[in-house]
Design goal:
The chain has about 375 residues and is mainly alpha-helical. A 3-stranded antiparallel β-sheet has the order 2-1-3. A hairpin with a 2-residue loop joins strand 1 and strand 2. Helix 1 packs antiparallel against helix 3 and helix 10 packs across helix 11. It is globular, with a radius of gyration of 21 Å.
């Protein structure tokens, strides 16, 4: 079995699971659906990009090219850019560059909010501040925030008034692409979905939203005063991703490589961000946590000592040959080959490390 067949087989399996996830999202209460689905945009884009890379037509035209442009950008370009946004600026080695970009985008959002305010409204927010940072909670744990979602949708280059429509249009194209691919294979290479597959365990009462004042330092009511607020916001994005991986994914995806792939990528980038913050001296004032920080970083480096592991998580076009018959679980074999750990053992370790990292960020930024 050649590498392309292995890659395609793994992607097809995850397309089936993602289609099940899509139906579960559709059946969520309408008031909580956007917050969770927005957090999944980079990972749904990753699947769409995988289809493009592994199932090109004979003349090498990608299948996503049949969808119409959004705000002057092709769907093909958008899935690549939004897929890459899952890194949440951790691909930029200079953390100050990332923080400047976060603050710039937050200020842009803040200015858009107050642009049409009356003189009286402007006087009020000058005295009491303008809430410009929304945080979404699951059982009091932050799993997403408006800055993070703004990074995901930044490739649209939309105005604050139009971005919602553009996100909806893009999401629909994502769903049509994945669902169309599934429909072409169901009953042949993929089983049919059952009614019980559409149900999720998400309860609306567990999900809440809180708005905070961030941009105006005098009235700011989020994060402590010990650390630069930009570093705190940078780390909040990682805390949200970690909680999304630990809490939300379990509610909408079954035990499947699709879930493990997303969780492992979130773990990779979140601890990478902690490493950047620590190595640049931004966590110097938290000496009591230095031992934990170093341990988290070192364990992360051991797990990802082989760069091929990260690459095979982020790309469906596998870079390492896997010698196994069609019936085998390729994801398990890939993990064992590249980490020397069985998947179950790796996940036990990673979940433990993610919980430590999430608690660490919580202790540092609040």
């Amino acid at each position: 079995m050649n590498l392309l067949q292995v890659s395609r087989s793994q992607l097809i399996s995850e397309i089936y699971e993602s289609n099940k996830m899509i139906y579960r999202l559709i059946n969520l209460p309408k008031d909580i659906q956007p917050n969770i689905s927005s957090s999944l945009l980079p990972y749904m884009s990753m699947i769409c990009d995988g289809i493009d890379s592994l199932f090109q037509t004979e003349d090498t035209v990608v299948l996503s090219s049949r969808f119409e442009d959004i705000n002057g950008k092709s769907f093909t370009t958008l899935i690549k850019n939004i897929r890459a946004s899952s890194k949440l600026l951790t691909d930029k080695k200079n953390i100050r560059t990332s923080i400047k970009m976060l603050n710039r985008e937050t200020k842009k959002f803040h200015d858009e909010l107050v642009r049409d305010y009356t003189v009286e409204q402007l006087a009020y927010i000058q005295a009491f501040g303008q809430e410009d940072l929304g945080v979404f909670y699951y059982k009091d744990k932050p799993y997403a925030n408006s800055t993070q979602i703004n990074l995901y949708v930044k490739p649209f280059n939309s105005s604050i008034m139009e971005v919602g429509n553009d996100v909806l249009k893009f999401s629909m194209q994502n769903v049509m692409y994945i669902n169309g691919f599934y429909n072409a294979l169901k009953g042949h290479k993929l089983p049919y979905l059952k009614q019980e597959d559409y149900k999720s365990n998400v309860g609306g009462e567990d999900l809440t939203t809180q708005d905070y004042i961030y941009s105006e330092e005098k009235q700011r009511n989020i994060f402590n005063k010990v650390m630069d607020k930009g570093v705190s916001l940078y780390l909040l994005n990682m805390q949200c991703q970690l909680n999304f991986a630990l809490c939300i994914l379990d509610l909408i995806i079954d035990e499947h490589p699709l879930k493990y792939r997303i969780q492992l990528l979130i773990y990779y980038y979140s601890v990478q961000a902690i490493d950047f913050a620590f190595s640049t001296g931004n966590l110097e004032d938290f000496e009591e946590y230095h031992g934990t920080i170093i341990s988290v970083i070192e364990n992360h480096k051991r797990i990802f000592s082989d760069n091929a592991f990260r690459n095979n998580l982020f790309h469906y076009n596998l870079s390492t040959e896997i010698n196994s018959p069609l019936s085998e679980n390729y994801f398990k074999i890939m993990v064992k080959t590249l980490t020397s750990l069985p998947l179950e053992e790796l996940l036990t370790t990673v979940y433990k490390e993610m919980k430590i990292a999430e608690k660490l960020i919580k202790n540092i930024i609040y």
